[in-house]
Design a protein that fits this description.
There is one protein chain. This protein is of the alpha/beta class. It contains 17 helices and 14 strands. The chain has a 6-stranded parallel β-sheet, sandwiched between helices. Helix 8 links the parallel strand 7 and strand 8. Helix 3 runs parallel beside helix 4 and helix 9 crosses helix 15. The longest helix is centred in the last third of the chain and has 27 residues. The protein starts with a strand and ends with a helix.
Length: about 425
């Protein structure tokens, strides 16, 4: 089978790209041809198909003049360049099925029109909530938000949901209205893949056809992760430093725990909240907390391997974060909030502990429980590794994904039969 994979970035930028590249590698390992389509960038992984990629675009509001910003806004709504470049790639390669990941803004759903003309069935993985939320996250003003339910995208403008900017929020709201009116996703995407049951339920609640949304969990290859030994002297957080991630709640929990303050907390990652978090540590005397900044995969490996356990204190509707699966593959227990798909990845009391998001005392108690009982944390880590091997392995994912591809190909066969009839 020839599979076209479409994602706006062709370098490892985040969780969506991790899944995008892992899917390509998995398909190729099973003998399929994989054709990428993305945006040009100096950081891209080399590919012979990069001559088809679309030009790079800078989405920062402050970049360029007025006309440059208007051009960017137009490309967010509909990119004729992406449509034309993909049309040429489709003529030259003739894929059997297209698998879309994140195409918003830099590519835009214009790619769907090209795929429709060439009658290539489309499967789309939902890595975030963009189809139902202009800000991607269903989170604003410090709390989960569902104000846009029912297509009320003007709420994003009223609450400046996109980067705190009314202008950016207006563009993204207009994008939502335009794509809803034209029905471009509805007409061209055959099946949506939700990596978590929570994602599937939420998009159906917001109006997606439940017959076209299916659950296929993310995967990790356990053989690529070596279980690490811990001396129990520290625990860790790995991820972005943003309000939605709940890191401030973690620091407050540590502040009120003598047990936690007697252990190091290593924080790997960077983001717009880092300065605020560091200032909090200085003001409250949290000298056991060390900020490591953004780490490469190679540098992150020993940090996770040596941790007693990891903490995922998110306060937004997490989908299915790869960081949690990778921690489990390393035989690490995870203390996770009960937001979104996290409880699907962490079995409370078995592979880790689940606490109510934002509850400082509950998080403190969970952290203390594992710090006070290193054998318990180690046993949960072993169970987490077994859980990943059984439920989130590459082979399980491959079988489920191929079933979705076959269903999508079946819709093309049915459409052709109707035309002949």
């Amino acid at each position: 089978m020839r599979v076209l994979q479409v994602n706006k970035f062709h370098y490892n930028r985040g969780g969506a790209e991790t899944a995008y590249f892992a899917t390509a590698e998995l398909l190729e390992r099973h003998g399929h041809d994989v054709i990428p389509f993305a945006m040009a960038d100096d950081r891209n992984v080399p590919t012979p198909y990069d001559r088809y990629f679309v030009s790079n675009v800078e989405l920062r509001e402050e970049s360029g003049g007025v006309f440059d910003r208007l051009a960017v806004a137009g490309r967010i709504l509909y990119s004729r360049e992406a449509e034309h470049h993909l049309d040429r790639l489709l003529r030259d390669t003739r894929p059997d099925v297209a698998h879309l990941h994140n195409v918003y803004h830099q590519l835009s759903p214009s790619v769907l029109r090209a795929l429709g003309r060439h009658r290539v069935p489309v499967v789309m993985t939902l890595h975030d909530y963009k189809l139902i939320c202009p800000a991607y996250t269903l989170y604003t003003e410090g709390a989960p938000c569902e104000r846009c339910r029912g297509g009320r995208f003007y709420q994003a403008v009223a609450h400046r949901c996109v980067k705190g900017s009314r202008a950016k929020s207006a563009i993204c709201a207009a994008e939502g209205y335009l794509h809803g009116i034209t029905g471009i996703y509805r007409r061209h995407v055959k099946f949506y893949v939700g990596p978590s049951h929570f994602m599937v339920r939420k998009v159906v609640e917001f109006g997606l056809d439940p017959r076209r949304v299916t659950h296929v969990p993310n995967f990790v290859d356990p053989d690529a992760f070596r279980p690490g030994q811990s001396d129990g002297t520290y625990f860790a957080y790995a991820g972005r430093l943003e309000n939605v991630k709940g890191v401030m709640t973690l620091l407050r929990a540590v502040r009120h725990s003598e047990t936690a303050r007697a252990h190091r907390l290593l924080i790997a990652g960077d983001g717009e909240q880092r300065g605020e978090l560091e200032a909090f540590c200085r003001a409250t005397g949290l000298d056991n907390v060390r900020f490591l900044g953004h780490l490469s995969q190679g540098d992150l490996e020993p940090v996770v391997a040596g941790a007693a356990f990891l903490v995922a204190p998110s306060e937004w509707y997490e989908n299915a974060p790869m960081s949690v699966l990778e921690a489990a593959a390393r035989a690490k227990a995870v203390v996770a909030s009960d937001m979104g798909g996290l409880p699907e990845l962490v079995k409370d009391g078995e592979t880790g502990l689940v606490f109510h998001a934002g509850d400082v005392d509950a998080l403190r108690a969970a952290v203390e429980r594992l710090l006070d009982a290193p054998p318990l944390a180690a046993d949960m880590g072993r169970r987490a590794r077994a859980f990943v091997e059984e439920t989130f392995s590459p082979e399980v994912h491959y079988r489920q994904l191929m079933a979705v591809y076959e269903r999508a190909l079946g819709t093309r066969t049915q459409a052709a039969a109707r035309e002949r009839g």
